[in-house]
């Protein structure tokens, strides 16, 4: 029940029937405590952290008695109450503001029973003042006009709250808010504190009538209901009281503070993020701007050297070089310069490249590039490798050879290419042992790099031809298939003879044989291929069949027909396909051939081919 | 002492404070990665001279949709700018018309190439090579779940790196070139993932993304903001501790060998890539193998976001379902050997991505009910909503601002302004609607 006399949440909820049971359970500390006669009610604070200067005892949603000084004890004469259920609780107030509330206690008055129930004589109500209780003003929907069945609290009459004046009797009938209503005479008797030690210095709630000698206040005679005015309740903080809490507090200020702090910290973090990225952007802007300026100087200079050779005074070039080195952004400047130089180098003809190399040597760019080979940043190392390769710098061969063995395939391939540019012959011999074992090097890449070695000026053959063949034959068994594929992809002069040599060796390795048969491209190898049609290995027979078709064509028709009797269905199927691709393989030819076959499997293979043909 | 409604309000507020603060801290963690990226791009603005040496890539393309569309797609993919790559198209045997069109268009012939099948996949009925396009191969498989079909494609791939290009993805012509960059500096990178951009209102040229523009429709715009907040900067922060986990569909380039080690794609997953990334972390960490999974914030692929509300919400439900599947299926990440991934990233993703729809919807429902029952007063309600929505706005706006400064995908100031407006407006209704839709992901079957 609120101070302004309107109905409480739990009552409203019960009325609505929403969660009545839940609220009732949580609202009532002890369910239906049977009482009879006079019961002493003691109010105790759970903590003394917050002061309170008065206690109010409420009965059935009406204030009954106040106590301004400890111990806070009240005597309730249950005989003045109707039989049945009544609710009591206490509220602590500080300067008229409620600071604590106890849980509601249900009493079941049973004075009318022949045998009085052995109920408690003293009831203890505890409350906490750890949190302030803020009671919100009642919304209009919960006024008496809309809830006529609910009892309304009455504001305490001002007169009743002054010392010495008895409190108005409690009532159980509803009444408009702020109107004092005298309860029925038979129901209630005013209460009196059991002990009152002294007059309170600051009574905010008036004590009842002075005590008689016995310490008990004499109950006034029951009088007809009279209207008693109550003082207006002290203004309270607006808050919805929680149902059932022993002493309901509100954490709104803390939550509001948390919200503000959270938003502030979030804004701070967001600001830090933005500041960081803006700083990065600014740094980058400066770097890019400086790079652009440098390129504006060097691009025309290099273009000029491409056309006219090194006409500029080398001294001036060196001076510009020194300017680069001494600048605060030395490394960045060199990187920009080397990028430009390499770009021009890769887009120019040989003669122009020589001129660019001349400029680079005057600039001693190779020394700078060698220094960058150990940079922790991959793009810079790549730049250095490309520069040394394009310059054909022989002095860096050992460094590049070490990088060609780097586990990083990207870096190692770039170093391999640079090696081939710097010294083709030496590079081939350095790289071939790596080629066999570097499974991460794509064969196509390797071949294209090796082919950049070009032709041997003396023999006119490719530089890689003989060394690659030799390396293939010397490879470990496990590496042979890969090397054969490389050799075949290189398509150099030594490729086919090497493959024939391997076929002649009749290795037991089926994979190697299959790869060799796949790689046979010269019709001179037909004689070596035919015997493999009878190989026990399925894949070998298959590759031999395909090699015969590739190299022999229609001359090998008989071999294809023989393979129709192969034990393996896939070989039979491929043999039938090969026959179907023969120039003479008309539908009549295939049907006739099918009819002449003795085995069902051979006929089935040809029927498949005929069926596919009919669909087309 | 406070009552239980207030405790609930505190709990809700606390969850969203932890979520958004975590996001902002992740944004701060992006700074080193962003700096490296910006410097690389500055170098990249100068002429490239060492291209051609990048590792070759197998592009796995699961066939779907109409045959003509599939043919156009394959034709388009053949014009990717990359040194060496192959296309492996996986076609179900039930899609006969698609296979016939491919055979006809690309002059496919059956091949007898022998491949090992290290990954579980449906039966392969045939493998076809193109006689005119050497890099094209078509694998015909029995109908099965998409992840199994992708495994079949991986079984027939030849190159060390592989990526999956589904039908709804729109690539740039240099997508592979950009996707492979994280693999170049280090040999330990086994996966590179990037977000999927929004292609609405963008210019396409020959099937490739040519010019990125800001979407005009509000739903794709909201998708852009959502991507920036969660899919871009929310993941980039995990780069530094090598703890990237996926919470939404992404595009990935994977080391084929590592993929085979973990058994490829699982047949019962909705989001295959998220599951694979989590399993890669789990397997590599438990073995103590040195590895990196890198997140690249720049979207190398894009897709058209739905412009109708219901499909957009249904999509989110599916994403949530995929996320929950990958989380459920990778509880092994909680192993002590999984380090930061299991101890920090996985719980963070579970709490603040997996359970986020529950928390969001639960918060709003609880607050509204408590307020209606006058168990919670308006100021309390307002405080909690201020935390939830206010922090959401700050995080979204920060992500948009960072994009404008760093990624520069939407360069014009009015684009950034439009995104900022959306970042604010989406918090009042759309985000809540998406949360409700994502709740369906908890009960989706597939």
Identify the notable features of this structure and list them briefly.
heterodimer; A: 616 residues; alpha+beta; 4-stranded mixed beta sheet; B: 446 residues; alpha/beta; 11-stranded mixed beta sheet; two-stranded antiparallel ribbon; 13 strands; globular
> Cα-atom Rg of chain A, whole angstroms?
53 Å
Mean pLDDT rating of chain A: 72
Helix content of chain B: 40-55%
**What structural class do you assign from the helix and strand content of chain A?**
alpha+beta
| SSE string of chain B | HHEHEHEEEHEEHEEEHEHHEEHHHHHH
Radius of gyration of chain B: 23 Å
Largest interface: A-B, 79 and 67 residues
Average of pLDDT of chain B? 89
Terminus-to-terminus distance of chain B: 47 Å
Number of strands of chain B: 13
How much strand content do the residues of chain B show?
Answer: 5-15%
Number of DSSP helices of chain A? 22
Q: List low-confidence stretches of chain A.
A: 1-30, 131-249
Characterization of this structure:
The complex is a heterodimer of chains A (616) and B (446). Chain A is α+β, with helices and mostly antiparallel strands. Helices cover 46% and strands 9% of the residues of chain A. In chain A, a hairpin with a 2-residue loop joins strand 6 and strand 7 (97-101). The longest helix of chain B is centred in the last third of the chain and has 30 residues, at 378-407. Helices cover 50% and strands 15% of the residues of chain B. Chain B has 446 residues and is an alpha/beta fold. In chain B, strands 1, 2, 3, 4, 5, 6, 7, 8, 11, 12 and 13 form an eleven-stranded mixed sheet that branches. In chain B, strands 9-10 form a two-stranded antiparallel sheet. Chain B has 15 helices and 13 strands. The interface between A and B is large, with 79 and 67 residues.
